[in-house]
Amino acid sequence: MFKLNRKMPAAQFIRFNLIGLLNTAIDFVLFTLFIWLGVYYLLAQILAYGAGMANSFLLNNRYTFNKGQAAVPGTNEWKKRLRFAAWNGIVLGISLLLLAALTKLFSMDDVLAKVIVTIVTVGINFYGSRKWVFVQQQAN
Fold first, then answer.
1. Does the predicted TM-score (pTM) go above 0.85?
2. How far, in whole angstroms, is CA 1 from its chain's centroid?
3. What residues contact 20, with CB distance under 8 A and at least 6 apart?
4. Is the separation of the CB atoms in 114 and 45 below 8 Å?
5. Which of left, alpha, beta for 72 (phi over 0: left; psi -120 to 50: alpha)?
6. Separation CA 83–CA 89 (nearest Å)
7. What is d(CA 116, CA 84) in angstroms, rounded to the nearest whole number?
8. What is the secondary structure of 72-139 as a DSSP string?
9. Are 13 and 126 in contact (CB under 8 A)?
């Protein structure tokens, strides 16, 4: 069977997006559930995105950017977690701004706006994850 080289950007992008489909499903289902329950759409976005983000870190850290090995706790691991949280905070901010713009300025349905925002933020998230969050540290 053909095996993708984990260091190849295309292979990583495919793996990132497969995991992203699961993250997006978690995010989208929870967002829709929260909206159905009457939760304010921006709070629903924060909660749902947070759940998808936790899943993303666990799976991408192990399977997309670390060659299938469990992460070894240590200084670099904490730095990676902080970078992950910071980057996803930035992407969350972008998603909140876009969501608010689409729903308020363009009177778009909350769920349709969520679909568009998700499409836009996928590429942004991959780029930052590959170039900054999960960058391999050089041995000293």
1. no
2. 29
3. 56, 122, 125, 126
4. yes
5. beta
6. 10
7. 23
8. PPSHHHHHHHHHHHHHHHHHHHHHHHHHHIIIIIS---HHHHHHHHHHHHHHHHHHHIIIIISPPPPP
9. yes
Q: How far apart, in Å, are the Cα atoms of 94 and each of 6, 61, 71, 87?
A: 28, 23, 29, 11
Amino acid at 98: L
What are the distances in angstroms from CA 109 to CA 11, 32, 94? 35, 12, 18
Q: 79 and 60 in contact (C-beta within 8 Å)?
A: no
Q: What is the dihedral of CA 46, 86, 70, 124, to 10 degrees?
A: 80
Structure tokens belonging to residue 68: 């299938």
- The residue behind tokens 């899943």 is 55
- pLDDT tens-place string over residues 41-97: 999 999 998 999 999 999 988 888 876 555 555 667 788 889 999 999 999 999 999
